[in-house]
Design a protein that fits this description.
Elements: H1 13-22, H2 29-35, E1 43-45, E2 48-50, H3 58-69, E3 71-77, H4 81-91, E4 97-103, E5 117-125, E6 128-133, E7 137-143, H5 144-151, E8 162-169, H6 175-192, H7 195-205, H8 211-238, H9 242-263, H10 267-278, H11 281-290
Antiparallel strand pairs: 1-2, 3-8, 4-5, 4-8, 5-6, 6-7
Helix pairs in contact: 1-2, 2-6, 2-8, 3-6, 6-11, 7-10, 8-9, 9-10, 9-11
């Protein structure tokens, strides 16, 4: 089976929020997601598999991502709810604000799982908070109290009351050039990760299902992992990294198939798929080093 672009829904809250902040001429969310380097590896956090690099999280990657895209922004972390709300209202005078991570369970217009991280773009604060939620809710509203609970929650990474504002375009960068600029960081994240070990650990985990693992994998991890890797495969093909693209297409197919095997709790096949996935990471490291790509 060849590589085919995927267009559709998926848990791309971070990339979609960045696209909203960058405005009408923003790169596609797929290119932004690849620029974060999230597709290049996998890790285990608190007994749950994540299909992103070892020690990676969206906030760690944000400055590098913006630099790759040719943009900058400023960060503010509130001391407490009162301070954060005051500063948020102040920053909104110059435009929308990128907010997160927030805890999805407190977003009262459509609550999600407790402890699940999410990103939103805040538009206005009056007696309610008005925001764009990339999970299918434009111009959503919720009480200020609920918003502050979501924003102030303790999550596995980042700090409560974190926001980004004052997004500025520093240079014009084409999508193909963004992909090329991503490669050094992609190689670094991939090379420094314990990807095969993480895949083997995940293969052992799926032999003993528990509700948190099952829900995490079927509702989030596999969906976003397959989407990320599929997008990376297409991006690499665009710039002539054909060997790396082939390997990432194989990864995407493995992850895509995993959704069914996990959903029906087929432990044996799920473990086999994850073990096979683990074997693809070292060849990908070599392909990213060896491919020459197309000239700019």
């Amino acid at each position: 089976m060849a590589s085919y672009p995927y267009v559709g829904n998926g848990p791309y809250c971070y990339a979609n929020c960045l696209a909203m902040m960058l405005g009408a001429n923003a790169p596609s969310s797929s290119v932004i997601e690849v620029a974060t380097c999230s597709p290049f590896g996998m890790q285990i956090i608190e007994g749950l598999p994540f299909f992103d690099p070892t020690n990676w999280d969206p906030l760690i990657a944000l400055d590098d991502t913006l630099k790759t895209l040719g943009w900058s922004s400023k960060e503010f972390i509130g001391k407490d709810a009162e301070n954060a709300l005051k500063e948020l209202k102040s920053k909104l005078h110059t435009g929308p604000v990128f907010v997160g991570p927030v805890d999805l369970s407190y977003l009262s217009y459509q609550p999600g799982p407790r402890g699940a991280d999410h990103y939103v773009v805040v538009l206005v604060v009056d007696d309610m908070v008005h925001l764009h939620d990339p999970n299918g809710h434009p111009y959503a509203i919720l009480p200020v109290k609920d918003f502050l609970s979501a924003w102030g929650a303790s999550l596995p990474y980042g700090q409560p009351f974190t926001m980004r504002y004052d997004f500025r375009k520093l240079e014009d960068v084409t999508e193909d050039e963004i992909i090329r600029r991503t490669l050094p960081n992609a190689r670094r994240w991939l090379s420094e990760g314990n990807n095969r070990e993480a895949a083997e650990t995940a293969a052992k985990l799926v032999k003993n299902w528990h509700p948190a693992l099952y829900g995490h994998m079927t509702e989030f991890a596999i969906r976003v992992g397959a989407r990320r890797v599929a997008d990376a495969a297409i991006c690499l093909e665009r710039i002539g990294y054909r060997n790396a693209s082939k390997i990432m297409t194989e990864q995407a197919k493995l992850l895509g198939s995993l959704q069914y095997h996990v959903r029906v709790k087929n432990s044996t096949t799920s473990a086999e798929v994850l073990s096979h996935l683990g074997l693809t990471y070292e060849p990908l490291v070599q392909a990213l080093k060896g491919d020459q790509g197309l000239s700019a």
